[in-house]
Write the structure tokens for this entry.
Amino acid sequence: MTKIMLSIDDLTKLKSLGDILIPASEGMAGFSAVSDIERLLQLATTASGTAPQMVAAIRDLPSVANLAEAKTFAQNAPAAFAVLAQVISGAYYMAREVLIALNYPLERRNPAGVSDFADEYMTGIVDPVVENNRGAA
Amino acid sequence: MTKTQEEVEVLIVGAGPSGAVAAHTLASAGMSVVCLEQGDWMSPNDYPGNRPEYEMLVQKDWNPNPNTRGRAADYPVNSSDSDLTPVMFGAVGGSSILFGAHWMRLKPSDFRVKTQDGICDDWPISYEDLHPYYNRIDAFLGVSGLGGDPAYPEQDFEMPPHPLGKGGMRMAHAMNSLGWHWWPGTQAIPTFKHKNLAQCVRWGMCESGCPAGSKASFDLAYWPHAISAGAQLITGARVREIVVDALGHAKGVIWIDRDGNEHQQNAKIVILAANGIGTARLLQLSKSQAFPDGLANGSGLVGKNLMLHPNNEVVGLYDEDIEGWRGPAGQLMYSLQFYETDADRGFYRGAKMNLMPRPGVLSVLREFDDLPFEQRWGKAIHDIDRYAGHAMSWAANIEDLPEESNCISLDPDLKDSDGIPAPKVQYRISENSWKAMDYMLDRMTEMHQAAGARHVFRHRLWTEQPGHLLGTARCGDDPTRSVVDRWGRAHDVPNLFIVDGSVMVTSGAVNPTATIAAWALRCAEHIIETKRDFVG
């Protein structure tokens, strides 16, 4: 994995594009309003494995003021847009506050309870399969 | 200069599932065993699943495609003439590091397709021959599942299945309303702690390596026991060639270590466990005066009849909270409703279908990539990101029929990191398979619709297949029509055995690792029973 350090200029450009692609909405933070977004951008960039393409894409990223201009950029430079959009999305959707807003559990250890399957089984959910001998050759 | 190692009784090439089972079985019987593995040990701490950026990591460094990963431990594969890109992983445990641990037995009909459907060939063994070995492997691994599936002969499991959860229960009701077969998923993921495997915590990251150490990848589930029994495992050891003696018996192998030094390891018995591509490649690399067309290739079938199991998928997005982030993934359920040949459908054989959760946010958003820009980005993104955690995927594993034109050969140009010719894959999806795929795509769509999906996304083909590498050194009783016999012994080389998926005569439509492991156990026990033939 090649680690690259995004410069302040790089981060500024990415946050600007991020705010256009992922603006605030009811219950959802806008891109650059996400706490720690700069660290997450660094993390996403390194993890993407697209460091050389990323450097070039940021370098060639024009000033984009609104969604229409972002669309024009995506049409003119689809490969560069894909790399940038992936990192921007990756950074945003790994943020804790975003995952909480999407009802994702932050505690990801969810071992099954001893009787969890038994409780499902006792509803009779499997009975029609057995009673009708479904799937028998 | 080649360093020659002390001769052992058994040499195994490859430390994936079949190599692990063979090593454990033979070492437990007191035989001296060395296993050579090109990759290294993995650690659950290395896997991306416990990191917030995991969805980014699986796109490159943890991609299932070895060409995308580009690790030195993997060899590259030229798939430019193939409809599918084979996936695999070079490490102790092999591709089980990344498998979904769907633990399915072949059905009895799979062993007699010629007799039943009049196509392909029958296996030289039956389901009943393999049945006790399936049972013993299941018990060793702590396979979880529910007995009583009417689609199978009697089977039982020590561990209960994983809960279906909200999504699984919703789909189970839908399947019942359709009147179609389904059954709770059988998995090589113990529900509760089993030996050195931790309890599954349902992270849903099974296919990028289990960060909890719960999934029965064979580096965890088998190798510690094999080593305790006395097997020696050498990592970073890439085998270049099998050498033969004047009698045409396998004498040992030449292998290259991480520093590029060459070694020769001799053995009384050589076992290949390098998967359906690696084993064929190694046999083709092992040409000699006695075997000018490659080792054990008197039938001309080494490398031919490659079967890869085309897969396709229908993703359903639901308005209701179905906890699509909850694992294992793993299969919540499977369906064998359309497994057997039905002449009315217009194709032979069928598919196993499995329902899986879709844990990641990005993987759900990607389903909307074909939307017009304004509906994919800007404020509209929050109309679609609400489906994160609301997704389930039905995938169909299509039975791949053997065809000699689908094959492995040595690439004239592409080489691995040790300069050894890489395999070239020539593979075309047959008309029969396409018909089956399109049929299953429609059925999976109906399943999601019956369950009330708001959006349904149909993917006609996964170009990166699921890692099922089968058929390139098929077994059989006729030496002119097969490479190995019913015990995995090469017809042409009496002390050479093959225990991986290469031996499969037909592919069935289920995930093959349970069958590969059972076959390896059966072959290894036969070697023990007949070892006087080899070691005196």
About this structure: Chain B touches chain A through 65 residues (CB under 8 Å). Chain B has 15 helices and 16 strands. The mean pLDDT of chain B is 97. The CA atoms of residues 241 and 286 of chain B lie 5 Å apart.
